[in-house]
Design goal:
Layout: H1 2-14, E1 24-28, H2 45-58, E2 60-61, H3 64-73, E3 80-87, H4 91-102, E4 108-111, H5 122-132, E5 137-140, E6 146-149, H6 153-168, H7 172-186, H8 199-207, E7 211-214, H9 227-245, E8 251-253, H10 265-273, E9 278-280, H11 306-316
């Protein structure tokens, strides 16, 4: 209680109400039942529950679709924050949403629509293949990626960290082919087909009062696409969501999301032209009255230690 009061005072100084307000937008992807040995900092249900309690005790948590007008008008409350999730994992509904509702919190979920109903994103194909591989060494020379020690969880995590950045920026078709070939070379056997939500789960998430946003269809690196292809990807995701949920889709998240690397101003212009109200990146920092509403920054404190959660969010307000 004392810590929350002190944190609020610090937050008031860094993000007062009104024109000097700074908006914190948190990014999540998944909430897991138990700690993942390959990704120990990924939140579990227990740690996410603690984080949401801490967030609510210090910050004023608002729906993302409500803050845009207030931010630009200079009418945000002190210590304003929003919660977002990217991609469309099933655990967003089964684990994260009950915790959000327990704390009376709202979140926006950005959905890559092509992977609903049994699909699997390229990164998860690579991750789950290496996780399940019986091999001690993975030879990816034929893909120009090299050889990797995968003899234990730490080695597997290092290999994944080295492989994914190389595969991520391949052309869209080549990216999927490379991920599939990596799975073959790992000798991993069947991979999970229930990581992402079904259409029914997406509808249940919307019915639970959560905001749904666009995230393209196939999660491409938009900066690698020409204008027509980028427009098609962004529009396809928006159209699918609007038809499935029978509601306007007002918010968008750039896949991967680094300004200048993963998307450029011309793709932000397409998002605006397609009728979205705002868009978020993965550039760390907090938004101010002068921020571009189609390039709002986001941040997640990646520490698994509860004592560091709020201090890291307060530190992000200085960005």
């Amino acid at each position: 209680m004392i810590a929350s009061s002190i944190y609020k005072l610090i937050g008031n100084a860094l993000s007062p109400a009104g024109r000097r307000a700074r908006l914190s937008i948190l990014i999540y992807h998944r909430v897991l039942a138990d700690t993942d040995p390959l990704f120990p900092n990924e939140p579990t249900a227990a740690s996410f529950d603690r984080q949401m309690a801490l967030l609510k005790s210090v910050f004023t948590v608002l729906p993302l679709h409500e803050v845009g007008v207030h931010l630009q008008a200079g009418t945000l409350p002190a210590r304003a924050a929003c919660i977002t999730f990217d991609d469309g994992y099933a655990d967003n509904l089964t684990l994260a949403t009950p915790i959000l509702k327990k704390h009376g919190l709202h979140a926006t979920f950005f959905i890559a629509t092509a992977y609903l109903n049994g699909g699997r994103m390229f990164n998860d194909t690579v991750i789950e293949a290496i996780r399940r591989s019986p091999l001690r060494t993975l030879n990816l020379d034929e893909l120009g990626l090299g050889k990797f020690d995968i003899s234990g969880n730490e080695a597997k995590a290092r290999a994944i960290g080295q492989i994914l950045p190389q595969v991520k920026y391949l052309p869209l078709g080549a990216r999927e082919q490379a991920a599939a070939r990596i799975a073959e070379l790992t000798q991993c056997g069947p991979l999970p087909d229930d990581l992402m939500m079904t259409t029914g789960q997406l509808q249940a998430l919307h019915a639970a009062g959560m905001e749904i946003g666009g995230h393209t269809a196939r999660h491409p690196i938009l900066a690698k696409l020409d204008a027509d292809a980028a427009r098609t990807e962004i529009a396809a995701g928006k159209t699918f969501l609007e038809q499935t949920l029978n509601t306007p889709i007002r918010l968008f998240a750039y896949p991967n999301g680094k300004p200048g690397t993963d998307y450029r101003p011309e793709q932000a212009a397409i998002v605006r032209e397609l009728g979205f109200d705002a868009a978020v990146s993965t550039q760390w920092g907090s938004a101010t009255q002068s921020s571009d509403p189609f390039q709002l920054p986001r941040f997640t404190p990646w520490s698994s230690k509860p004592a560091r959660f709020v201090p890291m969010l307060l530190g992000n307000l200085r960005r």
